[in-house]
Predict the structure.
Amino acid sequence: MLSLDQLICLVQSGKYAGDLQHIQIGELWGSPNVLAVQPGETDEAAILRLFRLARDQWLSSGFFVRHLGLNRWTAQKLCADLAERGLLLRRGLTSGTRYRLADSASIGSEV
């Protein structure tokens, strides 16, 4: 692992200085967070993507509030709308409501 001082030296005069000068700080942290709305992705598409990653797990709308940073009402409405359209299965009531990807939604992208 490089120290910040070593990286600065490489950027200023190292063999790869030209390439290193174009790296942004965010790129040094590693790959993008899969638990985030990706650039150009709608909130609904992000929710469906995470349900596809979670496969047979039941998730609450609160999961998307915590991990995607959505407003509570937005997460609840999107999950309810997706269930009404048949893309998610729903069980439970009020704060105990959980959703799971419906079998028909696990193959393709309907968003």
Helices lie at 4-13, 17-20, 25-28, 43-54, 61-68, 72-84. The two ends are 41 Å apart (CA to CA).
